Structure to design on (525 residues):
């Protein structure tokens, strides 16, 4: 039996939305080098819709595939909807992950939340400066 | 497939495989039975014992067959602990990068009141004999230090370490699982009192190994039952595996020098080729290491994804990254030689043998270079390194 599902391997070998968005208005980085997985999410949000998303990941196959799948799941979605993304949804979309690899999909969820928080912080600051 | 994970396990040699099949087919009797069919199986076991003893310079009465390296390590350590405890000696010396078969056995003893000192293995992965001597106390009952490390392949100055133990009257055990069958070992010359070995690391079958214990060291048994192995290891002998282990060791012992020369040359080319990758480092001493072992760290990438992409290219290797083991910490061996966590996650162990070709070596170098570059291209850690937000360690 292979370690990972075909879907995981597909997203690992050909990750979707890899890279950076230079003019991103929401950026989130989670994880740490001690545990060995780090994810960085870049969001371009226009009219409360995630018009573009890119990621960079230092990590295992499961971490890379989870980041890739997570970006696919939120691309084109309203911010509200993206906030509801769970790691279970990411894992399910990947046809499952080994138990001891679930923590890698948690990072994908956290990276998106961190990027959305960053966006909201920035936009509330600009709201204030508008006044 | 290019198999470059011989430290994990080896392919059985034809000689060993043939003996195993033939023994299972023809000599399936129980060695404890008195009739001819059983006694023939017994002869096979005893012949294997004699052959193995001869290769390591021991007497046949000093060889006990076990299920492999882990069992041998456990039995050796518990034996010395029991002997020590009887004399009120409850201090054991080992080192920080032993195999878990040793380290976990020592932790279990600590819970029973033993005190354990772990020697530093330094950045080159080699123990300083003077530090061993300084650590020995009145109540030290055992020194257990591996012959060669399973991850980084470094070979310890066993002869000197053994000599120090002799001088202080302390039992010296060595986990030689990675060394037996790959380097010459004579237990007397090396001052070894107990030694663990495992057949599957030297082209023999899995689930078979032996423990050498010098005359006068009464082994404690881990498994009680029948009187096999002079009552030190109960259970009907795995006759085909024991015979195959002896056949494998014999063949390897005959070819040690020849193989070592060929493999060392390829290993050095492999290391040289991989060190050309920017921000990489060799783990462990460049010279005092097993002929087939190359272990490097590459900054800015993680080991499991490296292994998966190498697997796609038909290369079987291993890594000490946390995510390959399912724990959150990278290899205790890499941490022991002082590698930072972030660098330790990006490790790659390639363990080649004489079946590896020079063409394979070039292909491995090319593939690893390409894969490391690819993973770095979307690593946020690498981006921080090259943009100066994070300092390079390597
Ligand atoms: C140094 C060392 N000791 C002990 C063992 C355990 O051997 P076995 O798998 O035969 O129990 C291994 C194998 O991984 C090893 O490399
Ligand atoms: Zn992971």
């Amino acid at each position: 039996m292979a370690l990972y599902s075909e879907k995981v391997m597909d997203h690992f070998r050909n990750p979707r939305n890899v890279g950076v968005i230079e003019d991103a208005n929401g950026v989130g980085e989670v994880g740490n080098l001690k545990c060995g997985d780090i994810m960085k999410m870049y969001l371009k949000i226009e009219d409360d819709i995630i018009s573009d998303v890119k990621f960079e990941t230092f990590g295992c196959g499961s971490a890379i595939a989870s980041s890739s799948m997570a970006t696919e799941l939120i691309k084109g979605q309203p911010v509200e909807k993206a906030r509801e993304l769970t790691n279970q949804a990411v894992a399910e979309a990947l046809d499952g992950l080994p138990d001891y690899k679930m923590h890698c999909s948690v990072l994908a969820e956290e990276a998106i939340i961190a990027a959305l928080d960053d966006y909201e912080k920035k936009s509330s600051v600009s709201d204030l400066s508008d006044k | 497939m290019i198999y470059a994970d011989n430290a994990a396990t080896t392919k059985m040699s034809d000689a060993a495989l043939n003996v195993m099949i033939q023994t299972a087919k023809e000599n399936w009797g129980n060695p404890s039975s008195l009739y001819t069919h059983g006694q023939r199986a017994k002869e096979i076991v005893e012949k294997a014992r004699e052959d193995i003893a001869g290769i390591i310079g021991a007497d046949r009465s000093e060889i006990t067959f076990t299920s492999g390296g882990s069992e041998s390590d456990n039995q050796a350590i518990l034996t010395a602990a029991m002997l020590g405890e009887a004399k009120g000696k409850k201090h054991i010396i080992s080192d920080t990068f032993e195999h878990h078969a040793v380290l976990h056995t020592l932790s279990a003893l600590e819970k029973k009141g033993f005190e354990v000192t772990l020697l530093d293995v330094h950045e080159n992965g080699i123990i300083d004999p003077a530090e061993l001597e300084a650590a020995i106390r009145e109540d030290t009952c055992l020194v257990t230090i591996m012959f060669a490390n399973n991850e980084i392949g470094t070979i310890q100055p066993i002869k000197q370490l053994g000599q120090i133990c002799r001088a202080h009257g302390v039992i010296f055990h060595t986990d030689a699982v990675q060394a037996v069958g790959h380097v010459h070992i004579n237990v007397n010359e090396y001052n070894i009192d107990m030694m663990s070995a495992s057949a599957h690391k030297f082209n023999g079958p899995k689930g078979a190994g032996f423990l050498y214990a010098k005359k006068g060291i009464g082994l404690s048994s881990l498994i009680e039952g029948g009187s096999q192995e002079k009552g030190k290891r109960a259970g009907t002998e795995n006759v085909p595996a024991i015979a195959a282990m002896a056949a494998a060791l014999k063949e390897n012992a005959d070819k040690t020098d020849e193989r070592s020369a060929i493999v060392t040359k390829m290993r050095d080319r492999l290391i040289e080729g991989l060190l050309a990758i920017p921000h990489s480092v060799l783990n462990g001493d460049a010279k005092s290491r097993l002929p087939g072992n190359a272990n490097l760290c590459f900054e800015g990438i993680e080991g499991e994804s490296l292994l998966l992409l190498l697997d796609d290219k038909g290369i079987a290797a291993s890594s000490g990254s946390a995510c390959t083991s399912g724990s959150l910490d990278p290899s205790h061996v890499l941490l022991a030689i002082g590698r930072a966590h972030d660098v330790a996650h990006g490790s790659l162990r390639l363990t080649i043998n004489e079946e590896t070709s020079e063409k394979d070596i070039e292909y491995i170098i090319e593939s690893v270079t390409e894969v490391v570059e690819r993973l770095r291209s979307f690593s946020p850690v690498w981006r921080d390194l090259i943009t100066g937000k994070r300092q390079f360690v390597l």
Remarks:
- The longest helix of chain A spans residues 102-130.
